[in-house]
Amino acid sequence: MISLGSLFNRQEPPLLGLDISSSSVKLVELSRDKAGQLVLDRCAIEPLERGWITDGNVEKFDEVAEAVRRVVKKSGTRTKHVAMALPASAVITKKIILPGGLSESELEIQVESEANQYIPFSLDEVSLDFCVVGPSATSSGDVEVLIAASRKEKVQDRQGLAEAAGLKPVVVDVESYASRLATARLIESLPNKGVDTMVALFEVGALTTSMQVIRNDEVLYERDQAFGGAQLTQLIVRQYGFSPEEAENKKRSGDLPDDYESGVLKPFVESMAQEIGRALQFFFTSTPHNKVDYVMLAGGSSALPGLTESVTQQTSFASMRADPFDGMTIGNNVREKKMRREAASYLTSCGLALRRFLR
Where does the record place the SHS2 domain (predicted)? Predict the structure, then answer.
């Protein structure tokens, strides 16, 4: 059996969550206190230059590896075991039905046999893993099994980045799975513990915004759209004549001309709210559903002033930022003010760090 290092492995503590996106590297480390409450021990973020990671592919390995080293140093952690993730586009997943009562080795043989039907590559070229989800809802005595596969070089790139920073990769997950794990905590804090609540999660990245509609831990719909925070940087470049690097730095620091808020930011926020509204309409027209209970916004650009209000106005649905650290105790090594400002950027890395507590 070729292991994906492992996609569904239950890991013992301690464990870092390391999220490498197109714009930054995010690190999160969690623990539990004596009462069993989650504690945010460390978090850190390190920006990446545009083009270092493209469509989930590592284009500038040495530069990204150096950024990983910096984020580890910045966090102050001594933990070496790390959970990482691949973009959903790099992983093929499929649910299959197999007979119940099979041993682990019998399951492996069956999974490899079934995987040949669904994976358009030779099994020698892929990392493959599986997880028994539970009893089949449609076939008595059988079990539902989730299989996942990715090209070996995609997995090896992520592992290599960790190893170059002196870390030991022990879990390779899927980004959307990790973000759902972190979101599940937030949904549980909603009225009625979030039971039967339909949540549309939008993760606004630099270049792409991913949408997942979740109800009772089930994904009803998912879609990626080509809009993100980098478009705001481009608008700043065009409006003020800065270089892209200057514009990005000034956007992060808030060091922009007086007319920025009214002339650039407000129109961009309204445009982003319209894109989210369009994505929801597409969901409604292609499924039996016609409403959601909440819109949750994550990713760096979700912190833009006025975005949640604009989304509520545009869609008429309650909108909120997804703060993955909500309800956690904040450790002494965390700069809380900075963390609160960037919290929504950490959704995936927090989900990866939560893998420590899965049983």
Answer: 15-183
